[in-house]
Design brief:
The structure is a single chain. It is globular, with a radius of gyration of 7 Å. It is built from no helices and two strands. The chain has 23 residues and is mainly beta. The chain has a two-stranded antiparallel ribbon with strand order 1-2.
């Protein structure tokens, strides 16, 4: 699963709020 945030698409974040979340 990959979620993209609205703030940054480069910084990984487990909440998916600051960047991308890859599961």
């Amino acid at each position: 699963i990959l979620r993209n945030s609205n703030i940054s698409g480069e910084i990984p974040d487990y909440l998916g709020n600051m960047g991308n979340l890859a599961i």
